[in-house]
C-alpha cells in the first residue's frame, strides 16, 4: 500500500542526501520515479552538501503536482514513487496534491524538509505534511549547533 512519508531534520542533517539515495535505489530497481525540489542551490537539481546531485523537476507555486504525476504516468506507463526535497517550501495545496498521488495513483511519496523557520515557527508546507503524512520520521544524522550541542533549530 502506498504512503506519504515525511522525513524532517535541521539544516545539515542529510535530508537531500537521503532523498537522492532513495531516488537512486528505487530507480536502480526499475521503478519509475519523479524527483522534485524547490529553491535548491542549483536550478533543476537536487544536490547534497556531499557533492552528489541529480536532475529534478523544479516545483513552482503554479505547478499542480498531481497533474504533473498523471502526465508523466501516461507517458511512461506508470509512476511508482515521487521524491520531494525542500518540501517545507511547497504550498499546502501542493502537499494535498502529494497525498492525492498516493491515494489515486498508488505511488509512494517521500517528502524531505525542515520543521521550523529560524524563529521556531512551522513552515506552511511542513504543517500540512504533519497533518497528512502517513509516516513522520526524524532524520537520524544529528547536525551540530555552533556551541557543539545537537542542533534543534535552524539559524
Question: Overview of this structure, please?
Answer:
There is one protein chain. The protein is of the alpha/beta class and 155 residues long. The protein contains four helices and eight strands; from the N terminus they run βαββββαβαβαβ. The chain has a single domain (4-138), classed as P-loop containing nucleotide triphosphate hydrolases (Rossmann fold). It has helices spanning 15-28, 65-76, 92-105, 124-132; strands spanning 4-8, 33-37, 45-47, 53-55, 57-58, 81-84, 108-113, 135-138. Helix 2 runs parallel beside helix 3 (92-105) and helix 3 runs parallel beside helix 4 (124-132). It is globular, with a radius of gyration of 15 Å.
Q: What is the average per-residue confidence, as pLDDT, rounded to a whole number?
A: 89
Helix run count: 4
Gap from first CA to last CA: 38 Å
> Which percent range describes the beta-strand content?
15-25%
Indicate the structural class. alpha/beta
Q: What is the count of distinct domains?
A: 1
What is the alpha-carbon Rg in Å? 15 Å
- Number of DSSP E strands: 8
* Largest sheet strand order: 5-2-6-7-1-8
CATH class call: Alpha Beta
Report the CATH superfamily.
Answer: P-loop containing nucleotide triphosphate hydrolases
Task: Give me the CATH fold name.
Answer: Rossmann fold
Amino acid at each position: 500500500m502506498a504512503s506519504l512519508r515525511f522525513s524532517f531534520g535541521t539544516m545539515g542533517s542529510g535530508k537531500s542526501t537521503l532523498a537522492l539515495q532513495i531516488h537512486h535505489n528505487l530507480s536502480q530497481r526499475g521503478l519509475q520515479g519523479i524527483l522534485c525540489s524547490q529553491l535548491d542551490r542549483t536550478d533543476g537539481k537536487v544536490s547534497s552538501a556531499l557533492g552528489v546531485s541529480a536532475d529534478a523537476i523544479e516545483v513552482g507555486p503554479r505547478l499542480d503536482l498531481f497533474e504533473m504525476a498523471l502526465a508523466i504516468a501516461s507517458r511512461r506507463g506508470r509512476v511508482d514513487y515521487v521524491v520531494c526535497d525542500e518540501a517545507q517550501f511547497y504550498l499546502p495545496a501542493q502537499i494535498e496534491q502529494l497525498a492525492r498521488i498516493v491515494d489515486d495513483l498508488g505511488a509512494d511519496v517521500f517528502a524531505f524538509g525542515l520543521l521550523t523557520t529560524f524563529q521556531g515557527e512551522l513552515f506552511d508546507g511542513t504543517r500540512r505534511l504533519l497533518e497528512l503524512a502517513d509516516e513522520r520520521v526524524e532524520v537520524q544524522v544529528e547536525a551540530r549547533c555552533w556551541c557543539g550541542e545537537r542542533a534543534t533549530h535552524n539559524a
